[in-house]
Design brief:
- 38% of the residues lie in helices and 15% in strands.
- By secondary structure, the chain is of the alpha+beta class.
- The protein folds into two domains: 152 residues, no CATH class; 97 residues.
- The strands form two sheets. A four-stranded antiparallel beta sheet has the order 1-2-5-6.
- Helix 8 crosses helix 11.
- The longest helix is centred in the first third of the chain and has 23 residues.
- It is globular, with a radius of gyration of 20 Å.
- The protein starts with a helix and ends with a helix.
């Protein structure tokens, strides 16, 4: 109880200093993030805010299943607390997760609330597991009492910046593409849920992975099968970088992804 009181007191002291800082710093330096604490005009979350949210050590069977680990533990804060305390939904409806390795995740505020998503500030992994270079805090965590859809977005790691955005604005360049078939529409949704984080398209998404539009000519009959073969070779359970995408993308979804990418490339 005493520790909780100290954390709350330190939070309010920080808030007072920030409010005072607005008046003292007017006209000097870059203090734009102070004008709308805890968010900048562009929706960026001030990093100190996370340290003043209540944290606890939790388990996540969701994480362990996705990584093929056991017994992982996380010191995590509740993103729902951030939402309920500061009400970003008045202007934005999603949180963009910019990662140190050019990965870019995105989760909706609805998902944050529905699945009580947490953000791990520390982690303890079993000593006998192989930890890939990208698996560092901060990490999105699904707690054990929630059943989130099995998607890569709910395992985003190595997060450097949190920024609130509007989904309609973020996806606008991709949503403008005219898709002809239902399979392409389904493939497009699968791409948003699992692929866009590493493979940017139409100027949005991460740049950690290959530029698919330059690496493959999907209009050619051979490049579709080549893409599927390369996907399976790199994203299987046994890959050394622990990027097991096969658990999220089955054979039918992979075929729809090819249809989607072919139509996007044809419409460019």
């Amino acid at each position: 109880m005493a520790d909780l009181i100290r954390k709350k007191l330190s939070f309010f002291i920080l808030l007072i200093f920030i409010i005072l800082g607005i008046g003292c710093s007017h006209g000097s330096g870059d203090v734009s993030y102070l004008k709308d604490f805890p968010f900048s005009r562009e929706g960026r979350v001030h990093p100190q805010v996370l340290e003043h949210l209540r944290s606890e050590w939790i388990d996540s069977a969701y994480f362990d299943r996705g990584m093929h680990y056991e017994g992982s533990q996380f010191r995590a804060v509740a993103l729902t607390e951030l939402v309920r305390r500061f009400h970003p939904e008045e202007r934005w409806d999603a949180m963009l997760l910019n990662c140190h390795d050019d990965y870019q995740g995105i989760i909706s505020i609805d998902d944050i609330i529905s699945y009580d998503l947490r953000l791990a500030l520390e982690m303890k992994l079993s000593p006998n597991v192989k930890r890939p270079a990208w698996l560092n805090p901060r990490v999105v965590i699904v707690p054990d009492n929630k059943e989130a859809p099995h998607q890569e977005r709910f395992m985003t790691a190595n997060i450097g910046e949190l920024r609130f955005v509007r989904l309609s604005e973020y996806y606008a360049p991709l949503d403008k593409v005219v898709l002809k078939s239902m399979h392409a529409h389904m493939g497009g949704q699968a791409f948003k849920d699992n692929c866009l984080f590493c493979h940017s398209l139409k100027g949005i998404g991460g740049n950690k992975g290959t530029d698919l539009m330059n690496a493959y000519d999907f209009a050619k009959g051979m490049d579709g099968p080549k893409f599927k073969k390369d996907f399976t070779a790199f994203h299987d359970e046994a890959n050394t970088d622990k990027q097991d995408m096969e658990q999220f993308v089955d054979a039918d979804t992979l075929r729809r992804l090819v249809v989607f990418l072919r139509e996007v490339q044809g419409g460019s």
